[in-house]
Give the backbone structure.
Amino acid sequence: MGEDMPLKMSGVSKWFGSFQAVRSLDFDVPKGSIVGFLGPNGAGKSTSLRMALGVLSPDRGEVSLLGAPPNLESLKRVGFLPEERGLYKKMSPRQIITYFARLKGLSNRDAKARADELLEMMGLGEFARSRVTKLSKGMAQKVQILSALAHRPDFLILDEPFSGLDPVNQQALEDLIIEEHKRGATIVFSTHVMEHAERLCEKIVMMARGRKVFDGTLDEAFAALGRAVHIGVAEGFDLGAALAPSGFEAVQEGDHWRVSLKPAQTSQDALRATLDSGAPITSFTPQEARLRDVFVSLVSDAEAQDLTDTLAADAAEGREAA
Amino acid sequence: MIRSTYLVTMRDYLGYVSAWGFWLGLLFTPVIIGIFILAPTFAQNAQPTRYFAVIEQGDTFTNALRQQMDDSVGVMARAMLDPLAIAEDRESEKIAAFDEARANGASVDEAFAQAGGNAAMLPRQDFVEVEAPVSNSAELAPYLIGETLVDTDEGPQPLFAAFVVNETSGEIEYWSENLQARTLISFAREAERELQLDRALASVNVDRSVLSEARAARRDVKQQRVRIGEGEDAETEVTQTDRAPFVVSIMMAFSLWFLIFSVINYLLMGTIEERSNKIFDSLLTSVKLPHLLAGKLLAVLLLSLTLMAFWSFGSGLLTWFVRDSIPADVAQGLGSLLTAAANPALFVPAIISFVLGYLMYGSLFLALGSLCDTIQEAQTLMTPLFVTLMAPLAMLAFAIQDAESALIEFMAWVPVFTPFLLILRMPTEPPLWEVFAQLGLMALTTLLILHLATRVYRAGAVHGAGVNDVWAYFGKLVPGKKSAA
């Protein structure tokens, strides 16, 4: 199971004092996949990833990294980009990449050759021997990403890799992730920018307030939100009644009707049924669900749930005190 | 473990030695120490000559004062000819030659040269007598406040001070604008004391030379060894060789203190750099925390060994170049020190103490550095440690007087002081069980400190604990005080 699921977290919880940062987290990362780990700031993403790597120990639950609890041997096959960016300021990019590659097991010669190759590939060849302090923020971030993948890891964990990068470098990083995926690496990255996840991920895990609120494919995420089309018809026409025989549910929302699509139904099916019903159509707008909408919806639900839990806990505490 | 520790060690070590500050410290520390040693002589020679006059009917007091000032230079000259003999209050050929030349009427400079010294090395006399410009104290003021100058070899100069010997009242007055300088007035008091002694001796018809002869005839008190080891010379008189282990132990203890004090800064700065640069997470997914700490401690240990090797090599090279001009007794003294240092009974406990002492203090500084983002933050936590480190330095002063004192013996049982004080005690040949017990206690304490330091380091590196958390922790320990943390 281990090699098929490079990362598996089961019932993992983490407290910092009285604050519970992660609550009974279960998820796994299939081999060869790109998984987006999504959530707002403070959702528990970084804490979860640090537990996945063994930097933090879970207070409850189990973590399996490449088939075993996180250890130095398995970590040699993992590349990690932490959320908090940092480099040795007095070292050069070549020295830094070489150093981390050697810590991951590469020989001095291979590490240097790999550093040169990666720096050239990312257009940083001319800065290879400059001090990090001479690099721009974007360049320094690239160096850190290269340090994470210099040893050709089987599994890449990137915590907020796109933050702080301009659009050009964000695209370059997306390309790099795709390249690494093609090479065979399994990749998990956390982000709160949904567009990257939409473009790159096969699977997403969403977190809010320390809970997992979604775990599945993109299609499943869109399905969770519910798809619909907006249809405008001549005033006075009852589209709800007209579409009911064909199995569509339509609700009037201002000057248009919102027609919900069930999993097997497409927007074309809804248009055909509307035309067949003889409705005088004035407009037709398929509502393309975006991951952002799914995210907002799920996070709002989680926050509402959290508020309910808190109130219930307070009430229980009050009863106990009484 | 070995590979990752080696990589961390080499990265840190090369980072330290590639910094220009390291080389600056390496090259300039001996220069600064040299300046401190030579500063008093420089300062004395740089001081302008001060002129004084004596107003006296006759020259009895004036001659006594001149003699006193001459003798003070003589004392300095004797100390410069053979400092070890003076310190140990023993006889010396050089000093005997100097005294004989003086007795035969030679000046201090001449006697110093005859005894084998370089007269140019003698400190210059600060005070020079000039002819009194007036004959009573009422007319002195313009000269003493600099309105009127006196004639000197350097041309017209202000008069610094004047003595007025009042034959009527029998008082000796000292006049000067400078109320702080006490040297001249001390000479005068000593001269008057000698003068009165001469008068007293004369009143009972005893010549002054009787006193000098009596002093010269005094018997030397020779220190003897109680224990004589197998194969050792049957001669029991204590020699330089016997004292060498004490000198070496003090040098070793001071070297350990100096090295710890001078390299802990690197540990502190290195950790603060990693914390402020947010590198910990990247490191901790590549190397285990204990291996990381071991690598860091080894890097700075290597750095301190580099310093020692460089300075030892430099000293050796310097000694080699000036070997022909080293006096035989100094060379013999150095030989005794090297022989004492090579004695396993001294250097084995010294090496263990050095390693454990370094680990103890090094890991503490490493752990505290992991809690700080800036050096300013670190300073608030470092004060108690610096105070702890200053205590052994104060005890070195006690050990120089008496390495077997109860204070040294007692404090050597306090593990944070053991690394320094055990070295100091070794020449006194303490019971073996005490040596092993103190080494064991020190080893246990080092392990405990390493364990605690690892936990603190983890708190700082992994959980981002900071200075405020430390104060909050101690706040919780205060009874009745509720911490905010």
Q: What stands out?
A: Chain A has eleven helices and 13 strands.
